[in-house]
């Protein structure tokens, strides 16, 4: 023996890791089945009869399949939530209440800015519909005077048009985005008064820069057409007015709020903070003072809520911008942005409006349970509002950002993103066309805002119940109105009228707070115990069994295969080496134990067993008495420590 | 099966274990109990199913190989009675515990508990269908005559009862007062209610349980077919009485309308809706459909399922909803039917009929009403988990409406069904099935009597409609809340009215009372879905069962299969032994005796504590081909080789496995 071989043998002997002890895969299976704790396997080997065996194989495989299927179901249903609804009875924080007059600015204050526009609107009305000149208006003469020297500024830019009924069908195509040239007569140029037949519709045309690409907007009613047209121009004008000036033109808190009561205690304008909304002017938010504790109510019922009387000066209303009278109320969280147009509730004048609230809080679980966001930081839309994230804020921010991107300026109704200006047609002549196109795309979800924005995970909502009653009553108004007039004497110098006032009550119906909370329905412990249950139920298997399976079926399996391949490779090599001497015996069976000879591993008990029985040389004289001492086990592997048995033999 | 088994038996006895080869075999076993791969039994050698030769063998095999933990100790340990008893008690305890737990688990599962899930979704929403009615029933020209007559009679009745001479517009009717009065059945009468009789006489149906201090009531008499049973439908308030009476006659007149009515001219409709916008885009006739409701007048349904492309809301807010300007002028087609002015609006799902009675909002004239909606969806689990129906096909009430199943639809259909069954005619406000005509007292003289009786039965659920009509499994509802503001404002009303009058023939002198505006929009696109899910599913039930089972027994489903196999084997062996005994007794009794003896002897000879596996048959059968039939060495000798301390005493095993092999 060469010294190298010796060392090799030594290493082999001392190497702690040996290969699988079964020489073949079949042996390995058999060994595994006899020794594993997993039920079913043993029977495969032990049972007698082919059908029985087959049945047992079937049972075992079925059990394995069931385990896998059920565990897969468990895993897939892992991310489910369970909902708990709790009702607390406690002192509740009063929400922030934002109150806006529907009319944004006092018409008397803003009129100098809008004079041209108003005059042109009236002219449009006159020429379109043949209105008689309003005689009742105090300043009717001012119209005519202005009318003389004015060049129509607004209608030149975006003229109001009349479309025939027959063309209406074609014109309607424009809403679907198809371009079409519409023959419209620009009415303002026509000197004679035209009477609009009911078969004709009114609209206006918005064009892009080169006026080749136009969209026409028609309205089934002239009222809508005029209002929309007016609003467009109004936004243009107001976009150029600085904010301080706008605030001054709008209502002051003292003016709007005549009386105020909260939780049975009097309050006044100082409890309100100003919030300027582009379309609704000065709004005032109650219970939103910074650096102050949030007010709360100790009792439910209308006596303990907010009671205000609002002065809605109907005389100061803009006739074309708004057509209804009243105020808007928004109830929201302190850090939430009041979306006046979306969630506002209108209040009617000469009425008392009672709004009963019921608070519901919702908490959702975020990823991976649902697609909601905690604070909006993972939404790729920049929040342009100075408020906490909400879905609405995200949608509006997304639209505004797109607007700045596409049209170069910001829409008037929403806050300004940084480094952007509100649109006006001095700087951006075709922004309106751009805006309408963009809005259409937005509504049809072509901008992708709806897919990007996620809902917030937690929100509070106040369910409102509104009821109305006539106020003040005929008998009480006799004393009520003079007293209120005296109260307001500092701000207004006219006698209050019933229709100028509105009373508002906001209160908690009860102090029950409903919380809807989601919690994970499954925990990892539950999952594991369910796994355990499934493994136990079908096969009485455990994690150790699983490890066993991995060991046997993967490691040993592959090492056996590898060994086989190695053997084959070796054989092949040997054959290749020794082609010149064909008389050499091909298989060394006669002399050697093939397992020992070829195997690179230590000879195992099993491989040792491969000693060929020396065919035909069976000597029957061997006495059997040794058998009992052999202590044959049912499982051979127990004695697999080494090949001592061989030596014994 | 039987044949193979028998064959098996016949085949195996001539396989005695030859002594020499036995030695050979034992040598091989000494090397390892596993035969090498090439020596594995081949398919021909191993039978399809092999059975044990005896109970003992079977039990030993079972005890050796079973996986049931307690059972091994109980059945297989026979050393010590004390121990056996102890194990028996333990086994019973755990068995009881396990089945108690199983009972609890199954009880929980079969009570079908559900857990509530609340999902808050935010999505683009389909705008619901909106139905708006004028509250002004239209006077069809076909029945104009009869209605005028009814009006005249009403005038007369009012005059008779209340000395109220109504509007001079109907003076023309006064000419034929006396004779016309008699033409209508069920005249309105003033009734004196006797105090003591009130409680006793059931014939007077009292709609107002309060004591009427005047002792006078207004009502009309309804009788059955042969006038044997009559009652008075009475009301404490004259207004109610007159209206109800008028309505009753109006229904009768309506039923005489011909089947196919000429559709109302579009002109009458266009005047109701001044302006319509959705999502800042004006809408047109294609967006709504029209029908006439006999009580609520002209109704317009926007965005119903006939609409070519349904309206979607991708933004909340008042600007992104439906905005309508309506005419609320009182044309007063039928003044006694509609006592309210304004309009009625209702929000419902696209495929649901608009039940204006059941839900709806009245709109005030001169006011802009902003109705904000919030969607809410409810999904119930059907089947075993709750009593609901998926599409109404399993409800024993025929759906008379051309719409999907809702509970209201079902209840109305149910009432109509009963009405047709009891009264023989259909109530006019509900759809009628084929070849049934609407009720009219000219044809069905007693239908009023029948109807009011039925109505009472219906209300007290004697008809069973409320139990028959199950809840639908998925319901979408819209929660509405409204805000009001005056419209048009003082400053803008001038041009608004002017505009309306120019464009829509609006008469300005009505001022505010003639117009109303309504905005319907989604307050938020978040909507809540309340859904149910089974709180114990099959998977969790199985997991829990498995946990319990593992905890108490450590056995598995496969163990149960083992048990089943044992029982099957027992039965088969019993059968075979009986068969063999039978055969040996009748054909060759000597042999049978010997066989029986053999069984007995082997049972006696092998020690009871032999936990020997049975790989031996395999080896034996392997050795089958080795031809050594001459060998007569008796196998029992092997058992005596040692006390078989090792379970691998293959000799013992072989002896017990082949009790019949000796001869």
UniProtKB/TrEMBL annotation, chain A:
Q: Which Gene3D superfamilies match?
A: Acid-sensing ion channel domain, Acid-sensing ion channels like domains
- Per the UniProt record, one Pfam family is ASC
Q: What is its main location?
A: membrane
Q: Where is this region: Disordered?
A: 577-597
Keywords (A to Z) from UniProt: Cell membrane, Disulfide bond, Ion channel, Ion transport, Membrane, Sodium, Sodium channel, Sodium transport, Transmembrane, Transmembrane helix, Transport
Keyword Ligase belongs to the record: no
Q: Which InterPro entries match?
A: ENaC, ENaC_chordates, ENaC_CS
One of the GO biological process terms? cellular response to aldosterone
Can you tell me where the transmembrane regions are? 54-79, 535-561
Q: Which reaction does it catalyse?
A: Na(+)(in) = Na(+)(out)
GO cellular component terms, alphabetically, are:
apical plasma membrane; external side of plasma membrane; extracellular exosome; nucleoplasm; sodium channel complex
Q: Which domain of life is it from?
A: Eukaryota
Where does it live in the cell?
Apical cell membrane
How does the record classify its membrane topology?
Answer: Multi-pass membrane protein
In the record, the note on similarity to other proteins reads:
Belongs to the amiloride-sensitive sodium channel (TC 1.A.6) family. SCNN1G subfamily.
Instruction: Supply the PANTHER family for this chain.
Output: AMILORIDE-SENSITIVE SODIUM CHANNEL SUBUNIT GAMMA, AMILORIDE-SENSITIVE SODIUM CHANNEL-RELATED
Q: How does it assemble?
A: Component of the heterotrimeric epithelial sodium channel (ENaC) composed of an alpha/SCNN1A, a beta/SCNN1B and a gamma/SCNN1G subunit. An additional delta/SCNN1D subunit can replace the alpha/SCNN1A subunit to form an alternative channel with specific properties. Interacts with WWP1 (via WW domains). Interacts with WWP2 (via WW domains); inhibits the channel. Interacts with the full-length immature form of PCSK9 (pro-PCSK9); inhibits ENaC by promoting its proteasomal degradation.
State the name under which the record lists this protein.
Epithelial sodium channel subunit gamma
| Chain's gene name | SCNN1G
TrEMBL record, chain B:
Give the catalysed reaction(s), semicolon-separated. Answer: Na(+)(in) = Na(+)(out)
Keywords annotated in UniProt: Cell membrane, Cell projection, Cilium, Cytoplasm, Cytoplasmic vesicle, Disulfide bond, Flagellum, Ion channel, Ion transport, Membrane, Sodium, Sodium channel, Sodium transport, Transmembrane, Transmembrane helix, Transport
One Gene Ontology term of the molecular function aspect: ligand-gated sodium channel activity
Q: How does it sit in the membrane?
A: Multi-pass membrane protein
Pro residues compositional bias, start-end: 626-637
First-listed, main subcellular location of the protein, grouped into a coarse class: membrane
* One of the record's GO cellular component terms: motile cilium
Q: Which domain of life is it from?
A: Eukaryota
Name the family.
Answer: Belongs to the amiloride-sensitive sodium channel (TC 1.A.6) family. SCNN1A subfamily.
Protein name in the entry? Epithelial sodium channel subunit alpha
**Which organism's genome codes for this protein?**
Rhinopithecus roxellana
Write the gene name: SCNN1A
